[in-house]
Amino acid sequence: MKWFHVILKNLFRNRRRTILTMAAVALALFIFTMLQTIMTALDISVAKGPGETRVAVIEKYGGPRTQLPISYWRRLVRFDHVISATPMGYTVTSVGWGDEYYVALLVDPETYREVFPTASRMVTGEQYQQFEKVRNGVLVGLEIMRKYDWNVGDIVKLKSLQHKTTMELQICGVLISNDRENQQFETQMLVNWNYYEGLIDNPGKVNIFWLRLDGPGNTLSVINNLVNYYSAGPYEVSVETESSMLNRLTSYTATIQLIIRVISTVVLFTILMVTVNTIALSTRERRKEIAVMKAIGFTPNTVLWMIVIEAVLISIIAGLIGTMGAYFLFNTKGLTISLGLTFDFLVRPSIVAAGILISIAIGAISGFIPAYNASKINVIKALHNL
Amino acid sequence: MDPILRIIHVSKTYIQGEVITPVLEGVNLDVFPGDYIALMGPSGSGKSTLLNIISGLDSPTSGDVIMNSESIVGLNETRLSRWRHENIGFIFQSYHLMPVLSAFENVELPLLLFEMPRKERRERVEAAMSIVGLDDRIDYFPRQLSGGQQQRVCIARAIITDPTIIIGDEPTGNLDYRSTDDVLELFDILNGELGKTIIMVTHDPHAAKHAKTIEKLEKGRLLNSEEKALDNTSDPHLLT
Asked: Measured between CB atoms, which of A12, A288, A380 is closest to B58?
């Protein structure tokens, strides 16, 4: 393309405008990439895991916020196809008077390891044994350890927001994620459920019972058996697979995803309008130059392509900055949003590719209309006189 | 000798709603290789319209325009663009250089449409810039050049493709006294020494005096041609 340098020169004829347009497109693509990453993370969180071999038992009407009696635990492990069961609660805690909040999962160390083997492998075997032994033991995420300069063996005080109580915990180990999928654990803590029970006024209640099944083929029958069994009891239960449980805990993922889609569409459409306006303004300013080009032999198609390529260059450069910026922020800097769940905030290559393709489309669409109009410029009218 | 351009009974009428404005009526003109024609006439006489039709920027309402035995009337826009690229060199009153391109790049612009190696393009641009006397201003941008220098860059751009005809619409209209003489001298060289065919619209009798032929338009019709002997020794300013 011999006239590529002409396109480049036109691209930067008004540097401030070009840079501002690029910044706007880059920001839009950054937001798009971020939103898509969150959406993908929600999808992955819902879909991944051992899938249907882990089920959650919760109170039928109130969900995990309403508690079930601990006495259910002994009965649950006796159901067919149930390998293990573990109780789980959660509390939001703060360190000292600080305003940083962390999710502390209240777990029974011994059975937690049986049901969630991956999570328990984030500390050394020795540290996990210590966690099992020490009643007020706690496993703390690496990020929290670093932030407060804590060491294994330290005694730390954490306030529980729900029960207005203070826990005095001994750090038994550090939760270090070896893969990004479990990285949110580095901003969480695992506290011995038994210890926490001793601190509160109404012990003996559990938010969730997690069951590990012997295989995915029996999930449905286990769910039916459990629901039927407890239907006559004082606390009816709802049994959900891990994926549907995660759905519940992510505050209705589908709704969030819909909102994200709407926001993404609005952002992209808005930036499309901005780019159309910029390119139209730019071509209107050089009507005479375009007319001269046509007069000296540039065909309408060549003029059209030159302007479309110019628009695509603006958007693709900006798109690369936006998507790669998001990629760098999420993947290199390890930006995570801790919601107390298994969210995997990784910008996947497919999202980067989609972002770049969208930026090309924004450029092509926004450039086409002004380019078409420019290619149809009447030379005589544009120049008034030769 | 056969004419390179034939304007055959060309008429042009503009219709805007109910208003019908005839601009050209039955114009005939033959242009031969090496001609240097000045088109003169009062405002509204149809000079610019005729020039637009000759250069393929406008089409006649009736009649024909034939260049090198080929009619250009009825060609689509793309073919007309290619035809202009090969046959017409434009010199504009307001120069119309690209402000973001250097003098070199402005002159090179029409060559970009040819399949031509960069080295050859450079050689041709340098030669054209040398003809117009701006070989020392090759990397200057239009804003760094005077009006006369910009017009000379425009001339270099017009001759770079070695067109069949060079078209000038008031090429000295925006120039001062000294620059006007420089440009007209350049036209004399292009026509006299390099054999270029030039058709120029002008209001300026001094500029017209440089042409070999003056064609006068009045109310859309060509009057009698006046053969003018090129007299480079006469003082052109006496005519103004």
From this structure: A380
